[in-house]
Q: What sequence folds into this?
């Protein structure tokens, strides 16, 4: 496949590389040489202001991919094959799929002036996906399916990449245990609060766990091992190792021997990554220290990360991660609602919009997090199962990548999360396992 444009920009090259990787086994070539394009006798795309021949696929471009600055975009959504689209144009496709995909994939709107949520993050209600009611859809993947059909109609002999559904389970270990390894001071304070509130069941559980007569309610690690083995999935665990426990960083101290052994155990059999603390997002030195400490404990290079509380600010957060040696980030989603923050169910490379350059940081978006469903969306375990299945079916239709976030405390024995463990087990055993 050859694409012609009068101006081959960094933005155009980036999105053509992404779309090419999604649709074809070989890279899409680009050229600004009109004569070379006209003489090319294989499938080709004309992405310019003027149609050039009858044997081309023509898309008249909007200005976005030829701009160098970041400015407010005036976007009007319309219905196309029962899904939303924007940047309507003329030619063989109803809209500029390259520019629209670029806008969503790069999180262009997050570079514009916007409101923050209560945690200082980009508020999901600002997004076009939320306002236009397609947050629950991997819209870019859906567009590319439609684009593929249109290309096939124009070029019946064109071959496309065969893709298959992929599931990546991930876990955030930000509170490894409920009662164990907290130290006398923290346990005593929590015990007194439970007594003061009349929660004597919690008092009894805490005492039984500390005496070794009952398993810690947040300890779901062996159970997860068995589940992964049965379902033949390869998870990734993210550990919070903040040196100072304060504010939103309430983990067990990384100096604790039990936590170190837990990290070492998972590092030996699984992929693990850093769960950068809330504090580290304001201090590069802290981020560097946390990564180095996790590498020391795990005795392996740490190249994966996910922000604690999904504290992600573009472009600053990703630039810090790249500087710290991170190669894969799993933070692309919201910490306030489930859905597709970048409107995609595919792995992609982050594009630094301010610098107008593709980076080496791979982005693994997630669509579902247990905490969003429970705390933010106020859903029951069964309602969460229905939500999970909706995402599963949607992503399978586009042969995309599905990544979910669960926390160990949702999958243990804490009465607050009764039923959630069973939901996850059913999902993995009856859907993901049989799909594989």
A:
């Amino acid at each position: 496949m050859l694409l012609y444009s009068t101006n081959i920009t960094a933005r155009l090259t980036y999105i053509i590389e992404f779309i090419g990787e999604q649709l074809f086994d070989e890279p899409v070539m680009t050229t600004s040489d009109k004569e070379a394009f006209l003489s090319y006798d294989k499938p080709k795309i004309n992405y310019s202001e003027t149609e050039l021949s009858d044997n081309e696929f023509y898309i008249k471009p909007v200005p976005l991919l030829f701009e160098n600055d970041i400015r407010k975009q005036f976007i009007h959504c319309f219905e196309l094959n029962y899904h939303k689209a924007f940047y309507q144009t003329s030619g063989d496709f109803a809209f500029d799929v390259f520019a629209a995909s670029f806008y969503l994939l790069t999180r262009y709107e997050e570079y514009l002036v916007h409101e923050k949520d209560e945690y200082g993050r980009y508020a999901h209600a600002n997004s076009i996906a939320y306002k236009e009611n397609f947050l629950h859809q991997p819209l870019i993947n859906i567009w590319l399916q439609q684009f593929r059909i249109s290309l096939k109609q124009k070029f019946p002999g064109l071959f496309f990449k065969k893709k298959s559904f992929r599931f990546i389970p991930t876990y955030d270990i930000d509170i490894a245990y409920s009662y164990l390894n907290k130290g006398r001071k923290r346990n005593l304070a929590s015990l007194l609060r439970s007594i003061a509130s009349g929660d004597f069941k919690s008092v009894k559980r805490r005492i039984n766990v500390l005496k070794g007569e009952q398993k810690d309610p947040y300890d779901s690690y062996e159970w997860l091992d068995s589940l992964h083995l049965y379902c033949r999935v390869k998870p990734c665990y993210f550990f919070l190792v903040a040196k100072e426990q304060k504010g939103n960083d309430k983990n067990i101290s990384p100096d604790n021997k039990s936590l170190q052994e837990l990290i070492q155990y998972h590092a030996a059999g699984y992929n693990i990554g850093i769960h950068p603390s809330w504090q580290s997002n304001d201090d590069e030195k802290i981020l560097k220290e946390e990564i180095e400490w996790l590498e020391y404990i795990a005795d392996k290079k740490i190249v994966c990360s996910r922000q604690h509380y999904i504290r992600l600010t573009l472009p600053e957060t990703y630039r810090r991660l790249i500087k710290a040696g991170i190669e894969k980030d799993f933070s692309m989603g919201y910490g306030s609602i489930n859905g597709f923050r970048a409107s995609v169910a595919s792995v992609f490379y982050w594009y630094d919009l301010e610098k107008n350059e593709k980076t080496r940081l791979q982005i693994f978006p997630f669509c579902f997090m247990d905490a969003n469903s429970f705390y933010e969306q106020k859903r029951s375990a069964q309602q969460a199962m229905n939500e999970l299945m909706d995402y599963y079916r949607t992503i399978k239709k586009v042969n995309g990548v599905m990544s979910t976030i669960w926390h160990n405390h949702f999958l243990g024995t804490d009465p607050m999360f009764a039923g959630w463990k069973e939901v996850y087990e059913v999902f993995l055993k009856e859907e993901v396992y049989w799909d594989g």
Remarks:
- Residues 2-154 form one domain.
- The longest helix spans residues 381-397.
- The chain has two domains: 2-154, 166-178+216-435.
